Every structure is written in C-alpha cells, then in structure tokens.
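Support case: user asked for a sample of complex input and structure output to validate their parser. Sending the pair below.
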Amino acid sequence: MPSSIKDVAGKAGVSIATVSHVVNGTRYVSEETKARVYKAMKELQYTPNSVARSLRSRKSKTIGFLIPDLANTFYTSIAEGIQHVLRQKGYQLILGNSNEELELELQQLRMFNSQLIDGLIIASTASSMNELEGVLKGDYPVVHLDRIPQGCEQDRILVNNDEAVYEAVSELIQKGHSRIGMIGGLDRLSTTKERIAGYRRALEDAGIAVKDSLIRMGNSKQDCGYELTRQLCEETDMTALLVSNNQMTLGALTYLKEHRYRMPEQLSLIGFDDYAWSFLMDPPLSVIHQPCFELGEKAANVLLERIGQPLSKGKEYMLRTMFIRRDSF
Amino acid sequence: MPSSIKDVAGKAGVSIATVSHVVNGTRYVSEETKARVYKAMKELQYTPNSVARSLRSRKSKTIGFLIPDLANTFYTSIAEGIQHVLRQKGYQLILGNSNEELELELQQLRMFNSQLIDGLIIASTASSMNELEGVLKGDYPVVHLDRIPQGCEQDRILVNNDEAVYEAVSELIQKGHSRIGMIGGLDRLSTTKERIAGYRRALEDAGIAVKDSLIRMGNSKQDCGYELTRQLCEETDMTALLVSNNQMTLGALTYLKEHRYRMPEQLSLIGFDDYAWSFLMDPPLSVIHQPCFELGEKAANVLLERIGQPLSKGKEYMLRTMFIRRDSF
DNA sequence: ATGAAAGCGCTAACAC
DNA sequence: GTGTTAGCGCTTTCAT
C-alpha cells in the first residue's frame, strides 16, 4: 500500500494542507516545517497520487499522442520531437496506437477523454470530423497532425504534400518519364489526396494525360506497398514509381529486389521519408524528406500555447519537405 | 465541461448508484430504468471519468510499457505484441520513453506510480535494481523485458543472447575468420554482457585468443554504431564484425558504405534484428532475428496473470532467437 | 429493484 | 505560518 498525504502529515505532525503546499511549493512554509515534511516523505517513500491530484485539479500535466501505426518510424520520430518540448515544460507524453482502424481510434480517444489528458495531438485515421463526433467534445485542446480530417477547424500541422509530390514528379518527367506509377496510402486520408493531386497536377502541367490505372492506393502498410507494386509491375508499363510513405516504400523495394529490377535503368523510384536505410539501399534511394522531429516540436508548442489560451480559432501550420536526390532515379 | 454521473442520474430520474450499475453491469437493473439511463447518457454525451473511477476502485485497466528508445523498431514491434494481447483483455497500453537516460526513466516511473497503471512492462536502462529503489515499490506487478537489471527477482522475459551470439560467431569462425570485431550496446546492460560473453565463449571454444581491442561498446544508438565501426576499421585488422543491435547496425552499414567496403570480401557482417531493410541492403544482411512480437505477447500474458495472482516469486521466460543467413558473410 | 452515503487522495478557499 | 474543510466523480456497502 502506497502511503498517502495523510500518513506524511501524521508523521511530520502537520496538516495535510501543509504537506500539499510543501510538495507543490504553492505557499510559504517555514524551513523547519519543510524539513520535517521532507523527512517524513522520504521515510514513507511518499509519491503524490497523481490520479487524486488530477481529479481534484482537473489537470494532469499529461498530453496524449494518438498515432495510426507504431511500426512506422515517421510517427515515432514525431513523438521524439513532441517529447523534446514537453519535457522542458514539465509535461508527460502518453502514446496510443490506432493501427489505422477507426474503431480502435475511437476506443483510444474514449480512454483519453475523462481529463486524463490536458491536450491531444492526433494523426487521425478518420476521413472526416463527423466520424470523431462524440469523442472529440472540446474538453481539451486538440492539434491535428500530418493527416487532417475533412471539416477540421482546430489547429493543424502538416507538410506541403501537394507541392512536394509535384516537384518530385516534375523531376521524373524532366528525366523523360511519362508513364509514372503512384502508390498512395488510404484513399480517405488528406495526405493521400493531396499527394495524388500533386501527382496529377505535375502530369497535367507537362501535358501528359493521367492514366488512372497508374494510381494505386492501399492501407499504408508494408505488405500493401509490396502488393501494389506487384500489380503496377505486372499490369502496366510504368518506367518510374513514386511511393508516398516509408512503410510502403519498403514493401515496394522488397518486391523489386525479389524480381531483380535494376534501378534506375528498368525503373526509377522515389520514396517518402528519409531514414538511414534509404541511403543504404542499392541503389541509394531518392526521397521526399519530411521534417519529422520539427513537426513534433511544432505540434507540441502549438498545443501548449492553446492550453494556456483556449479561445480563438484553430490555425494551420505548414512545414516544408525537401527532395533528396540519390541514385534511384 | 463534461457531464458527470450526477447529471445523468438527474436527467434519468434515478440515483447515481443506479447509473453506475448500468454503466458497469454490476447489478440487476430493470429494462425500463436501463433504457432511461442510456437515453440520458446519450443526450449528455456522458463518458465515465476514468480518473475518478481509478481513484475509487484503485485500478485503471491500464498497463505501462517503458522503453529505452522510441526510434528503435525492436521496441515498437514489442509494443505491438503487447497491445495485441491487452486489447483482448480490455486493457489499455500507455508508453513511456527513457531515451536510455536513467534520470528520465526514474521520472517516467514516478509518473507511472500512483496507481495510474495496474502493471508495468519495462526494458530498463538501469544496470541494477538498486538504481530503481524507491520508484519500483511493489505497488503493482512488474515484468522486465529484454534487459534485466542485476538483482532482479521479478518476472522477466528475455532471449538466449549468449547462445545466439555464440552461434553466429561460430559460423564466422568456421568461414575462416579469426579477427572478429564485436560492437555492443551500453556496457551496464545485461544484454550487452550476455552477448559479449557468447562472443568470448565462441572464440575460446575455437582456441582463438580474445583481443579486447576488438570489442567496443556504446550507447545503442545509430551514431554510436557509426563511430565504433570507424574505430574498428581504422584501428584494427578485423575481417568480420558482429553488431548487437539494429540501430547500431544501421550506423555501421552507413560507415561501411561511405567508405566503399565490399561485403563479404573485405568484411563479413552480421547484425541484430530482422527488418525489411535487412534484406534490402547490398548485400542482404545476415542477422540474428529476435521474436519481437512474441516477446511482447509473452510479457503481456505474464503480467496479466500476475495481476490476477500477485503472490509467488518471479520467473524467467526465455525465448529463442534465430540466425538468418544471407549474403553479408 | 433501487437509493443514501461514505470515502478514495488530493487542492484550494477560507479562517486564524 | 499553518490548519480545517468541502468537494472533484466515482464505486460499493448497507439499507429498504
């Protein structure tokens, strides 16, 4: 049985109010009283019960981060950025994983509800805010990250998906490619839509007709990247491929390696996200780099500001990607 | 302001006790009363306050998982295994990250304390249980995972590190190598010690003298793998290298690629953990595969069992690794 | 078949 | 400079 504030007060011969104030430094307490309290705390191995504290004060100094795929280092890199700023401000981070399933996401959100958290950062798997109705009730500030559900008017942090893909595809076109495959994530997500829009725009601006058969979408996971690449290789005559997420890129590369595709001679490839392994591939992979850590930092900063000042309406913050040219195209 | 049980009781014209029992299905309530309560809950968008619930019932249906490095997919894969079993039993998972820093680990543990969690799974960065004194106070069951602090008598889940490395090094020796480099993680960790023990044993059994200069240890991160590889390449005449963690392996590969080492002609390499990119390297990497998902499942199952039955002393569960031979050696 | 009330551990308003 | 006390939202015992 953990000891409570009462035990400490008893042992130190003071009131629980005094103990509370010593613990929180929230009003003056004489040095000798303080010393007695600290001694008692130590002897009893006292840790404040943060559940009771949260219940009473209606704040937990904890923020939640709900991600769609724990296996995707894009999100864990973001988490590191978030943690970096939270730590400095005395906040804790707890993570949830929706596994790209709406039902699981709702379940996690219901758990987050009930003032367990003072704020939430979410990369939602929902396509529209309607789907989150009833679980995002405005009890705490929310910052949307990466993918933004339709109708979202809260704060949101994202990258210039459309432009990023426009630029990459334009490079491919300039190299002479016209049959360019495109693999996207779940088609309900804003990121997928924006990236495909950029793809279309680049082709159109270059006067190349868009063939829908060259565009494939799936669930953002590795297996799916593998499968969609297989389809494109078998069913189309593409000469270049852009994969819009790092997990799917790994899947694509696996298929290509198994079938001994030579890059860039047989196929040019551009992936998303830049991790150590991108450079280690054979050949080194050209990628669209996303500022993960910075996305996390930005989201955390915006959220903390919003916690301090809940009013006024949400804003959009767009960070920039960077195209990194290596030998795969 | 979220609505409370009182609001629901008022609206439904029943007592709060009845609402509670309806919510939890914990005693008989007539169908019509139930219906009225459900209606009120819906209209008020009522979500039970889990903080209050935890405070009162002294359980949270939540378990914590403290990991040393969010960027290391070994741990996120484990987290997926944990989540897989927790979900089925109605438990939630919250993650913490110690970033391999003892101070941060203690901080996270202090937050976990205070019955916010019903149990803990931890891959500790501490070398001995002494360092965790005062924060692991026995208020909830604990399962240690992967690395086991000295003096630990609680449940622990690990792999056969010693044997795994013994086997891999023996394979290298059989190929004719005698000057074999070894890169380990933090030297205070059990995993590092066991892996290095396996390395020494393999050499000794083969009648090869162990040179300490061929053994290097660092902080388990990518940069460190890079740096230690540089040292070994510049300062020794090794012909083979074993790296005992996937992050450090990426660092090692980066150095080797930058300096155009040819594998396995110039250097044979064996890494730890098997991810998609291991196969995609040039050449495909031989690795010691660890059963991550299964480790997570096992840990969660052991923990839940322990929550049900807290007595009796901790046991050790050892899962097996698997050597995967590819072309890098 | 349902209600009244105690109390989990803490914070903060009020009192002296 | 410190103590008393109400009450956060809930579960659960004891009533009836």
